Amino acid sequence: MAKRRWTLVLVPHSAEPSKVVELSWGAVKLTAGLVVGLVVVALLVGTATVSRRVDLNRTARLESENQRLAVELGELHGRLTTLSDTIARISQRDGKIRLLASLEPIDPQVQAAGIGGPVVSGSSPGHNSTPLLRKTADVRVDANALIRRANLLASSFSAAADSLAAHTQRLAATPSIMPTQGWLSSAFSAMREHPILHIARPHEGIDVSAPMGAPIEAPAAGVVRSTGWEAGYGNVVEIDHGFGITTKFAHTSRILVHQGQRVQRGDRIALVGNSGLATGPHLHYEVHVNGRPVDPLRYVMPESVVTD
Question: According to DSSP H, which parts of 101-192 are helical?
Answer without folding.
Answer: 108-112, 131-172
